[in-house]
Amino acid sequence: MAGPGDPPAGTPEGVPGGGDDEYRSVVFDESFIRAARIQEYSARERLDGTARAVHVRRFWSRGGAPRQALILVLLIAMAFGTAIYLGIRNPYQQPATPAADQLRITLIPLAPTGAVPAVAQGQLFAGSPAADYRIGAEGVTLPPAHRTGHFAEDQVMQALTSAKDYLVASAIDPGALTGGDVRTVRTLLAPGQLDQFDRSLERPVDDGRHAATGWLVRFDPTRIKLADEQVRVQGGMTVSEVGDDLLEVVTDHTLVYAVRDAGGAASAASLFTVRRELRFRFDRDDLRDRHVELVQSSTEAGPLSCTTPSVGYFQPLLAGQQAQARTATDPFNHDHQLTSVCGVLAPEVSVSPQASRTAASPAAGSGSATPASP
User: 362 near 350, Cβ under 8 Å?
Assistant: First the structure.
């Protein structure tokens, strides 16, 4: 019986050692033959005297490993090109910033009719309506939250809470008041309003869109410092549904600040009053991300001088100072902005006898205003 490596008819005669020689290790299989670089011509081709006995097989005509290598190179090139294409058109790129309404700002400075009265240290708010106001965030109270047609009770409460957070960060926090860190205010805003907010702080102008004091209450730290960090606050909030996917919160608060000259440690303190009405809108994304969209800001503040812009910082008139004479408003002059309005600080309210003895004149009253005559 022949072995596994022997031909079926046995080992041919004349092969030494029964065919177990050095050539048995060479196996001329099909792939070896296809890969051969030379190929004998056919009988018809050999009859042609001009043809050589053999011709060389070109690289492209060979099969086997070279062809597989070529296909592999092409596949790698295609994969590399696809990767570059997907890198340019990344399907996981950050989505575009959602659009948001721009904030509309109305700022009315309230000019006093006389010299700004000083208030006694230790009794800064005595004789003022703010004497009975709550202090700081305690003055921003939330109304009861009730579900609406398209929003659950917890979503309504989230809208009210976010509005309160913005009020506290933008008008009560001592850091923001004195021209310091405003990151808390910024992080509360909807992403679509960040560019407008940044421009308002970097390049404030009186155009009804880019006054920094429309976004927050702050004083120029080089001129003004707080005589007391306990801001007196009183006001209210309302919430309503203005669309299937939109809640609106309106806040209306009066805030009273005790301020003095930053350059004089012993300078007399005076009161500065701000009435601030803000209108917020919340869609479902805002509620989920705890953002606010501030769409309208209306502010009355005084005592201020109508001739000193208060778009970057509020520049309160301090104790003993008087407002400069207002210039007439010409309705035929279209060069001035319609947002440049000035009011007159309402007559001062009565003060307590103790406050009267310590103050140079009656304490500043509330921030209500009477429109100024042209």
Answer: yes
Which long-range contacts link 226-230 to residues 24+ away (Cβ below 8 Å)? Answer: 226/174, 226/177, 226/178, 226/257, 226/258, 226/259, 227/121, 227/124, 227/258, 227/259, 227/260, 227/269, 228/124, 228/258, 228/269, 229/174, 230/135, 230/136
Handedness of CA 34, 38, 40, 46 (dihedral sign): positive
pLDDT tens for the chain, 374 residues long, are 555 555 555 555 555 555 555 555 555 566 655 655 555 556 666 666 555 555 555 544 555 567 777 888 888 888 888 877 776 665 555 555 566 789 999 999 999 988 999 998 888 998 889 999 999 999 999 999 999 989 999 999 999 999 999 999 999 999 899 988 899 999 999 999 999 999 999 999 988 999 999 999 999 999 999 999 999 999 999 999 988 889 999 999 999 999 999 987 778 999 999 999 999 999 999 999 999 999 999 999 999 998 888 899 999 999 999 887 666 667 787 776 665 678 888 765 333 334 444 433 333 333 334 333 33
- Interatomic CA distance for residues 267 and 86, integer angstroms: 66
Q: Is there a contact between 209 and 215 (Cβ–Cβ < 8 Å)?
A: no
* CA distances (Å), origin 147, targets 100, 280, 284, 295, 320: 25, 18, 14, 23, 51
The pTM assigned to this predicted structure is 0.69
